[in-house]
Amino acid sequence: NTVIHPDSSLFSDFCGVPVSATPMTSDETVPVGGTVTLTCRVAESDNSSLQWSNTAQQTLYFGEKRALRDNRIQLYRSTSTELSITISEVQLSDEGEYTCSIFTMPVRTARATVTVLGVPGKPQISGFEHAVKEEEKVTLTCTSTGSKPPATLHWYKGDQLLKGERYGQCTVDGNPTYNVSSELTLEVSASDDNTLITCAVNHPSLSPGDKRSEQALRVLCKSTGKLGGKEGSYRSLSFSLSARPTIYTWDKKDGGLPLQAKPDGAVLHFSMLNKSDNGVYVCHADNGIGSSEGEYTLLVQDPTAMSTTSGVDHAVIGGVVAVIVFILLCLLIVLGRYLIRHKGTYLTHEAKGSDDAPDADTAIINAEGGHSGAEDKKESGRRRRKNNLYTQKKACLFLLHAWKCRVEISISG
């Protein structure tokens, strides 16, 4: 009275059907929109036909012959021992058991279960609409739709994993997918300003980090400010703060802002500077719970006046040097002409300072009387040549001294 199931190997042995003719399949998992391959094999062939049927027991392929008109289903491989088909653009309705049959006596079958994963949508973060004050609490909500099975949501602050509260998991009527939600409550501080809070989806259909959303925190806190600029060639003044303000206001003491000064948040730009821009500039910042201000004194120097003064100094020095050189040249010309016209008398008087002074006087007397002898004339000529050499030496020394003086004056100038 033993009952043997037709799919059992004992049935094959008892009824004379070889075990090698039993079809073999495998279960498959595929995400929505993907492609799945269903394969049915037998170890040995007895020329019996293989067939694939869908979850509604509709024949898809009988050997190489298409039975169901669905262009998503295509023949992948057909041999005497294998029948493989593919289903593309998989939908949730394609999930279920598919049957492979081999038409022996009796017919043998094997089943393959296809699991279709609902791919979750990109998470959406809500609950943060405007900046919050430090030491206050903020609650963020992350929601993802369309997952099957239900997705898991994770919170991160920078690289730090945070613990959120999973409060929502529901399905839509007639749709086997899930919508999941998670909440995160934080008490913010000044250091949290600009910090990124991330919500990431974890699901079998996704690789880690495939779908995530980020929300930057904006924290309002009391702050101190500093106004700064660079002396010399000014282009802009900037006001730096230790926290995020919401409003910047620029002003100038003892008058309004110049027309060419353009405020741009924390920066005051100058398109062109002149001396009328000199003064004290004030920047005021306010973020709703605190305020701060800074002052900066702007001093614009006139580059034209500086360059003119420098040019005048150099012109005066150059003029003085030119006058001195001109005077020296004039003196040299006058001295040269004098030496040429009064050559004998000058040389004789110069000789009076030497040891031959008596002879020089004698030469003068003889020259006036005109009665000197030949020997006296020769002696007088010899002495005159000697005096000429002496005088030329003195003149060279004088010229050298004059040139040295001109060079020293030029260098000092």
From TrEMBL:
The chain crosses the membrane at residues 316-340. SMART domains: 4.1m, IG, IGc2, IGv. Keywords: Disulfide bond, Immunoglobulin domain, Membrane, Repeat, Signal, Transmembrane, Transmembrane helix. It is a single-pass type I membrane protein. It comes from the Eukaryota. SUPFAM superfamilies: Immunoglobulin. Residues 351-385 are annotated as: Disordered. The keyword Signal applies. Gene3D superfamilies: Immunoglobulins. One of its GO terms (cellular component) is presynaptic membrane. It is found in: Membrane. Its main location: membrane. Residues 18-115, 123-218, 219-299 form the Ig-like domain. One of its GO terms (biological process) is homophilic cell adhesion via plasma membrane adhesion molecules. Belongs to the nectin family. This is Cell adhesion molecule 3.
